[in-house]
Amino acid sequence: NDEDSEVILIDFQAPFYGSPVTDLLYFIYTGTDGKFRKAHMNNLRDLYHTELTKMLEYFDFDINDVYPKKVYEKDFEDSLDFGLMVALYLSPFVFTAENYFPDFSKDTIEDISYTMDDRYEERITEIVEEYLQWGIL
């Protein structure tokens, strides 16, 4: 019909109601190394907010009414533990050695083991060291 209806965006990758900051932290902690984060973390945080602002403007929303930068920055700081959790939980999958991935349809959970890529230990160490430096761990 010609009536307006409410639309809600849902991320089916990990569906839950939460801050958009979690999407950014998911990307950062599953797809970047310590050197990249050290050089670009602040730029990524600012870029995400800038692009979110543009997207909301496209739909005639003012970011200051919906998600002011101060709230966004506080959410980012308050959600850093999510980045650690995602990294620790998903890194075994991300860094499974090439040509080896468990067959979840055939293996029982007790029988599943992983062969890690050589980068796994370094990546996890970098992440834990960052969180120690920030005083989160």
TrEMBL record:
User: Which Pfam families does the UniProt record give?
Assistant: EcKL
Taxonomically, the superkingdom here is Eukaryota
Query: InterPro entries attached here?
Result: EcKL (IPR004119), Kinase-like_dom_sf (IPR011009)
Q: What is this protein called?
A: Jg5206 protein
**Per the UniProt entry, what species is this protein from, by scientific name?**
Pararge aegeria aegeria
